[in-house]
């Protein structure tokens, strides 16, 4: 376990009956924490970029898997959930672009951006993804 954690996994994040989705959520939390720890340990920008790329790829795959469950949601909630995914991926991609830009960013700036992404993701799992279970 890393010294610096941004997200703390708990059973509250588990979706009943969705082992794959739960495992993916847990894995994404772990990647965010790995990235956060690397930033706080003064990791090099190439490593930070590399983990951010993995986080983006894993998130894209996870969202695609999750979207196969949308048939359980009313049409308006499907649309909203898809928009949430789209906007999050845009924000994560923009974060990666900023890291790749070569512009010198402070640890505080990088951390604030990652914290914002992590807060959104945690809230999304608790509030939006939980509807995938309650609408079964």
Automatic annotation (TrEMBL):
- Provide a Gene Ontology MF annotation, just one: metal ion binding
One Pfam assignment: Hemerythrin
* Record key words, sorted: Iron, Metal-binding
| Gene3D superfamilies cross-referenced by the UniProt entry | Hemerythrin-like
Write down the superkingdom of origin: Bacteria
Residue stretches making up the Hemerythrin-like domain: 18-133
Q: Which family does it belong to?
A: Belongs to the hemerythrin family.
Q: What is this protein called?
A: Hemerythrin-like domain-containing protein
User: What's the source species for this entry?
Assistant: Lacimicrobium alkaliphilum
